[in-house]
Amino acid sequence: MKLNCALVIAALFAAVNVSAQAPSDRPPPRDARYEAPPPAAENTKIAYADVLRVDPVYDRVQTNGAHEECEDVPVERHVDSGNNNAAGTVIGAIVGGVLGNTVGKGDGRKAATVAGAVVGGAVGHGVASQDDRYAAVPERRCHMVQDAAEERRIVGYDVQYRYRGDVYMSRLDYDPGERVRVRVSVAPAD
Length: 190
Prior knowledge:
- The chain is α+β, with helices and mostly antiparallel strands.
- Helix 3 (85-101) packs antiparallel against helix 4 (107-129).
- The protein is elongated, with a radius of gyration of 54 Å.
- The chain starts with a helix and ends in a 5-residue tail after the last strand.
- The chain has helices at residues 2-21, 39-42, 85-101, 107-129, and strands at residues 44-79, 133-163, 166-172, 179-185.
């Protein structure tokens, strides 16, 4: 039994050793030292060109918004002149009651006193209320108004520039000023 186990282990080691030495279908790993650099990075540089002309490019933009509009509107308000209407009512009722008491005899006198007090109170209230006025007082009223406007906005710049005697045109997001940076790349023509 020990011999069979030893043979099985030896067979496994032999199989692993043979598979490690067998050629694989994969190519060998690349060595970066032997690869060529990308041609674009090697043949590209940054230079400056003289700007000949800059034309802003406009676009129409719809803007929506809201603002508050307020106006002063005249409103009729009761203006109290400071008179006390209750005092006029009480005084009128007393005077009316005294006058009613002078008329009639017995139970008629009591009824005349009550009637005089009621009529006198009403008359006194009316006299006291004559000084009250109504006036047009300004009141501020506001409401929201929706705005829709169209405006012109700059969306870019058409830039004409000269580099080594040749004239070029590009659209940029900014105004470059007197000089513009350009990327120059050289590659052989096929």
